[in-house]
Amino acid sequence: MQDIVSFLLENPDVLKQVVNGDACLLGIDPEKTGVVVDSIRLLGKSWGGGGFWI
Fold it and tell me: pTM of the predicted model, to two decimals?
């Protein structure tokens, strides 16, 4: 799972496509995809910002 999060953080265009429903994470069910996206949002907030743009 950490590899997926790292990939998405390094490729924000892919992250945006996943969030918008234009792309999916192969082998990851929609519920887990939601957990990954929510985790990235929380990670942005924990860095003192307003969260990531997603």
Answer: 0.68
